[in-house]
C-alpha cells in the first residue's frame, strides 16, 4: 500500500543502521511520535536478534501483528535510531488506504509519464510546484495501527 516508496531512501536508512555507533537494534525513518518523512515512505531495519526477541516477548495484539511497535514502544528495551529529514514533510500522505489516495498516486505517476524510477524528492519537488496535487487526499485521516487492529483475532 506504499507505491511511492523509494529505494534510495531505504538504502539511506539501511546504511544509517549499519554505520550507527554505538550499534543499534532498530532504525527507522518514522516513529509514531516523531515523523519527518511522508506517510508511506516508512522504512524500518532491525537485527535478527531484535526481531527474534520481539517474537518471543511481544504479547499485545498490535505488537504480534506488526512486530516493529514492540521495538520502539518500550523505553530502553532496544537501542533505536531515528533517521530524520531536515524538513518536516510528515503532512504528506503517500499510502493507499482510500479512493482519494489511489487517485493521488495515479496523478503522481501521470505527471511522471508512466516512469516508475522517480525519487521521493522528485515527488516533493512536484508537490511544491503543484500543491493542488497534495490536496487530492489531504482530508483522508490516517489510521493508527491500533485502529487497523481493532478486528485482530476475530
Structure summarized in a few sentences:
The protein has 154 residues and is mainly alpha-helical.
Tell me what the structure shows.
The protein has about 150 residues and is mostly helical. The chain folds into two domains: about 5-80, no CATH class; about 100-145, no CATH class. It has helices spanning about 5-20, 50-55, 60-65, 70-75, 100-110, 120-130, 130-135, 145-150; strands at about 25-30, 30, 35, 45, 80. Strands 4-1-5 form a three-stranded mixed β-sheet. It has a two-stranded antiparallel ribbon with strand order 2-3. The two termini are about 25 Å apart.
Q: How does the SSE layout of this entry go?
A:
Elements: H1 7-19, E1 26-28, E2 30-31, E3 34-35, E4 44-46, H2 48-57, H3 61-66, H4 68-73, E5 80-82, H5 99-111, H6 120-129, H7 132-135, H8 145-148
Parallel strand pairs: 1-5
Antiparallel strand pairs: 1-4, 2-3
Name some characteristics of this structure:
5 strands; 8 helices; mainly alpha; 43% helix; 154 residues; two-stranded antiparallel sheet; 2 domains; disordered C terminus; 3-stranded mixed β-sheet
The number of helices is 8
The counted number of beta strands is 5
Please tell me how large the radius of gyration is: 17 Å
What is the SS-derived class? mainly alpha
Low-pLDDT segments, ≥5 res: 148-154
Shape: globular
Mean pLDDT over the residues: 90
**C-alpha termini separation:** 23 Å
Order of helices and strands: HEEEEHHHEHHHH
Described by strand count, sense and barrel closure, the largest sheet is: 3 strands, mixed
Strand numbers in spatial order across the main sheet: 4-1-5
Strand content: 5-15%
